[in-house]
Automatic annotation (TrEMBL):
Name of the protein described by the UniProt record: ATP-grasp domain-containing protein
Lineage per the UniProt record: Bacteria, Bacillati, Bacillota, Bacilli, Bacillales
Annotated InterPro entries: ATP_grasp_subdomain_1, YheC/D
Family matches, as Gene3D superfamilies: ATP-grasp fold, A domain
A Pfam family hit: ATPgrasp_YheCD
Source species, domain of life: Bacteria
MF terms in GO: ATP binding
Length: 389
């Protein structure tokens, strides 16, 4: 380990040793300090004259603080990186300069602004598809590509695009509920007529936002979202409610699965997968249970965490491992630098498994053991991908 100084007045980093060291992706030389006062000292790994790894966490702006995103998660990454001899910082696309990035690091229990070279790699934690598609964000990704800075995970997944990719893998066919891209009113009417109960999901939705269910019983329909439930409606009335949403952004229609329940509440499996060196592993499996009569299991929408060992019969790990392994191969074939993802898997009343969604940016897990293992794996990924072992 070597000692690196952060000089508060200049917001810059210095090295007090006798030999020249470099850091960041472009191996920027570290200057010697102008003074010995007002400094915060770090211990970092030196490897062949380079120090690191330096990891940038790309997030979005926030109206009430310097940056948005999950601050607790970012703090945990910073603490773990420092403990192992690395350094991470958070930044937004607006703070990227020609040869440097103005970002924030977490030290002494507070966020401190500093000037960094371009990092060894970037971890994309922009919090919504809409922000990811902003011109400033696209320019940031273009800049990273021009500078040849590796970054993961590259973007939120398009639900319809992922569905089409998974449908090409024959081993996954039995695990995919029928799903189509919404196109017309007549198509939607025919799809609910066929399946009697369907989910209507935004292609770029996340955290359960924008989801509806539509159920047909006799000649009437029940339309439900997280905000309302309307019973005994004619199809036209349902259409009048849905149409503004369906015209605003692309949606998919998905056959509903009769999920197993516990105390009359549906539940599903949230599986976290990460790539360690060359191998995909299952970091953890959590259970999410919907509130009574809820339409999804997302905790922000009223769902709750449920212990895995309470599920009867026990989860079939062989099937889950196969789904993760085969899906990971498809993702890697079609997307650059995928290092982690989560999969929502359901099990119906007959014991059959279904893939509902694959998420490019897993939320933090409420299970402390899973989140701790995830964090350790993530730090190992940063070190390995940055060339620091």
């Amino acid at each position: 380990m070597i000692q690196l100084d952060y000089h508060l007045p200049t917001k810059s980093f210095y090295y007090r040793g006798k030999k020249q060291l470099t850091w960041g992706y472009h191996q920027v030389p570290l200057p010697f300090p102008p003074s010995h006062s007002n400094c915060i000292r770090f211990s970092m790994i030196e490897q062949a004259g380079k120090i690191g790894p330096l990891v940038g966490i790309l997030t979005n702006t926030h109206s009430k603080r310097p940056f948005g995103g999950n601050l607790d998660y970012f703090q945990s990454i910073q603490i773990k990186m420092l403990a192992k001899g690395g350094l991470s910082f958070v930044f937004t696309s607006e703070r990227m300069k020609k040869n440097s990035i103005i970002g924030w690091m977490y030290v002494d229990k507070k966020w401190v602004e500093a000037i960094f070279p371009y990092p060894n790699m970037v971890y994309n934690r922009i919090s919504s598809p809409a922000i990811e598609n902003k011109p400033s964000t696209k320019e940031a990704f273009k800049k990273l590509q021009t500078e040849k800075i590796p970054y993961f995970n590259p973007s939120f997944f398009n639900k319809w695009e992922i569905t089409q990719l998974l449908q090409k893998e024959t081993t996954l066919h039995p695990f995919l509920p029928e799903t189509i891209l919404f196109q017309t009113k007549q198509q939607a009417a025919a799809f609910v007529e066929k399946h009697r109960h369907i989910y209507i999901k935004p292609v770029y939705g996340n955290k359960g936002n924008g989801i509806f269910t539509l159920k047909k019983k006799n000649n009437h329909y029940t339309l439900q979202s997280h905000q309302f439930k309307s019973d005994a409606l004619p199809f036209q009335s349902c259409w009048n409610i849905l149409n503004p949403y369906l015209q605003k952004e692309p949606y998919i229609l998905q056959k509903s699965v009769r999920l197993q329940t516990y105390n009359n509440c549906i539940f599903d499996f949230r599986v976290l997968a990460q790539k360690i060196n060359l191998n995909w592993i299952i970091t953890g499996i959590g259970i999410r249970m919907a509130k009574e009569k809820g339409i999804t299991t997302h905790v922000p929408k009223g769902g709750t965490v449920f212990p895995l060992n309470a599920v009867k019969p026990p989860i079939n790990f062989h099937i889950v491992h196969m789904l993760i392994k085969n899906s990971a191969a498809i993702l890697e074939k079609n997307y650059d630098n995928v290092k982690e993802f989560s999969m929502d898997i359901g099990r119906d009343k007959e014991g059959n498994y279904s893939i509902f969604e694959i998420n490019a940016k897993p939320m933090s897990f409420d299970e402390k053991n899973i989140q701790a293992k995830r964090m350790n794996n993530l730090i190992n990924i940063f070190f390995h991908e940055s060339g620091f072992q």
